[in-house]
Amino acid sequence: MIFGRSERGKPPVEPVTLKILVAGGFGVGKTTLVGAVSEIRPLRTEELLTEAGRPVDDVSGVEGKHTTTVAMDFGRITLREDLVLYLFGTPGQERFWFMWDELSEGALGAVVLADTRRLEDCFAAVDYFERRSIPFVVGVNCFEGAARYPEQDVRQALDLDDGVPLLLCDARDRESVKEILIGVVQHAMARAAERRQAVTT
């Protein structure tokens, strides 16, 4: 089966689609993560950083970054013939946060990417998903040269509930990203089961 078409003689399959958001601070690796696993060439809405944006785009710690997402990143993974996963990378800067409500509509869950050199940059994303009861996991993107901290220290610094999974990852590595996405789906399923249980008791 090729997405959108069926094998000869078989009726076309209308796949179930799932949506996962990828959020976090400026320069944390959202665009890289989407690109690492997408089976299609990702849709990217990146623009060059300019002098006009220098006062609001803090590049300390990510001095090599020259572009920024201004709307979203989009990627797709076909899990099986009847199941497709859509990935939406959110823009990281505060001036683009108005788009998050649109992107989060109907989302199964989210990945909040964190950089231990700039942990405070993901506070807003953690707060956003907590307030809207959207299941999320925190993926600590292990940048080269960044200090490694015990999981409990990172969890405490982010003030995470015990039930929120915290995983280490490399946003450039396909297998590492797949583990993060599996974590999101498993967490979302567990949350849904808990809600059903609460309704029946």
From TrEMBL:
Alphabetical UniProt keywords: GTP-binding, Hydrolase, Nucleotide-binding
Gene3D superfamilies recorded: P-loop containing nucleotide triphosphate hydrolases
Pfam families xref list: ATP_bind_1 (PF03029)
The keyword Hydrolase belongs to this UniProt entry's keyword annotation: yes
Entry-linked SUPFAM superfamilies: P-loop containing nucleoside triphosphate hydrolases
Top-level division of the source organism's lineage: Bacteria
Family affiliation: Belongs to the GPN-loop GTPase family.
Protein name in UniProt: ATP/GTP-binding protein
Lineage: Bacteria, Bacillati, Actinomycetota, Actinomycetes, Kitasatosporales
